[in-house]
Amino acid sequence: MQKELSTEFTGLKFVNPFVLASAPPTESKRKILKAFEAGWGGVVTKTIGLHPVENVAGPKTIFQRTSEEKPYVSRNKRADTVSHSSWNWELISDQPLELWLPDLEEIKTTYPDRMLIASIMAGAGSEEEMDNWRKLATACVGVGCDALELNLSCPHMDRKDMGANVANDEDIIRSILQAVTSVVDVPIWVKLTPSTSTLVSAAAAAYEAGASCISLCNTFPSLPLMDPETMKFEVEVDGLVTSGGLGGLAILHQALQRVSDISRAFPDKSISGIGGIKGFREAFNFIVHGAGNLQICTAAMEEKGSGGVGVKLIQELTEDLSEYLQRKGYASIEEFRGAARERIVEHSQVRRKSDDYNGGYAKSA
Ligand SMILES: Cc1cc2nc3c(=O)[nH]c(=O)nc-3n(C[C@H](O)[C@H](O)[C@H](O)COP(=O)(O)O)c2cc1C
């Protein structure tokens, strides 16, 4: 029998802590309904916005693999490969808000016990953009969304007032949260970019301004690889490419470090962990660093025959977590959440063979 997997996170009841992240698996009503049928505890919708969106005239995502024999990373098909990462330069949803709203309402009515989180995005620096945030928030909550996730982290935006380009600017984070919390009364999750050195201060600003949770990581800004024979990038349009986002196993360790940084700075606050989760072991690692909720994208997209929503993956995740809780005698993930927190220390706090080392500083006499 499955051990009780339900969790309370940001005041919401999840039947299990596994959520499909904002991305192609959650880009349509059809896919979200299929995901809930498969057993996902929640979904964060593909990001919804009000500005014009047109994707590049070519593939938007590639899946990169590596092998034991000549273990280079490539999207090229080779025998006996394993997944390394996804790379994408896909923009936010091109489905307009007006079409999303009836879909969101139907999804929530069909699966009232599953958490439906709308990811939204607008710009910054003007009242007009704050109105856009307010409009998106009010509309999504009005049709029954349980929470909102503010996308402040998309790594490939031309607009300098959006996504990762706002680079965790604390004033912008505060102004957006102020706008959104003034019109809705649901938990607000804030998805920050991992690619700044000011992540902890940005998280502080978000929590102080009313965020219920920090979601991270979004994909890491990165370039696709060039093939030495053809001189082509593995994804390009007319020979051109731009910075896109790396996801999947390749970002796991970096994502964990970001989650740990925030979790140690704010042990009482909520974190939704994202980045490279492929199965229970990766999810476990996010939980011991303090995450109370897990989001998954690349691994679901990679599962063949699942329509990109990870049908087998969610079964495995729930079965493996349940078996682990049972075997260890834990009532829920809360019993081991944050277990690694106090074991992450400054380099100099890790024992040396002698007692003389002072973190690279000369010891005063
Ligand atoms: C093709 C693709 C599209 C994505 N679109 C969005 C998006 O619209 N909004 C967003 O917040 N994150 C988006 N993401 C980022 C994912 O939600 C997630 O943060 C990231 O992929 C890391 O998780 P993973 O390692 O499980 O893939 C996208 C990722 C991919 C691969």
TrEMBL record:
Q: Which domain of life is it from?
A: Bacteria
* Catalysed transformations (reactions): 5,6-dihydrouracil + NAD(+) = uracil + NADH + H(+); 5,6-dihydrothymine + NAD(+) = thymine + NADH + H(+)
| The keyword Oxidoreductase belongs to this UniProt entry's keyword annotation | yes
> What EC number(s) has UniProt assigned to this enzyme?
1.3.1.1
Checking Pfam families in the record gives:
DHO_dh
The UniProt keywords, alphabetically, are: Oxidoreductase
Q: What class of enzyme is it?
A: oxidoreductase
Task: Indicate the segments forming the Dihydroorotate dehydrogenase catalytic domain, all copies.
Answer: 5-319
**What is this protein for, i.e. what is its function?**
Involved in pyrimidine base degradation. Catalyzes physiologically the reduction of uracil to 5,6-dihydrouracil (DHU) by using NADH as a specific cosubstrate. It also catalyzes the reverse reaction and the reduction of thymine to 5,6-dihydrothymine (DHT).
Quaternary structure and interacting proteins, as annotated:
Heterotetramer of 2 PreA and 2 PreT subunits.
Official protein name in the record: dihydrouracil dehydrogenase (NAD(+))
